[in-house]
Amino acid sequence: MRGIFFDPDDARAVAARLEADGWAADVRRERLAGEDDDEDHPWAVTTDAPSFVLDVLVDTYDGWLDPEPADEPPRTGGTVPLDLPTAPERLKRSP
User: Fold this and answer.
1) Burial of 4 by CB count in 10 Å (0-12 exposed, 13-18 middle, 19+ buried)?
2) Of 8, 69, 81, 91, which one has the greatest count of Cβ atoms within 10 A?
């Protein structure tokens, strides 16, 4: 889970609170796509805390919650496994 904040002091306060409660927290500058300068980039607090813990802190410090995308299971052609060949198919037959 990530909490996004525009004020660096808020991001550090949230990280300190999470670490005081026993959760791991990391504060980093969040890069926006196509932006070169660091002036308007928000601060991201990445943590292993449950979403409801970070949600309360995000509401308190006026940030927003950015859940990491869930790993999707690999897609297959259907529920039945494909019948794949075990060896290459011969194009020319020997006499």
Assistant:
1) middle
2) 8
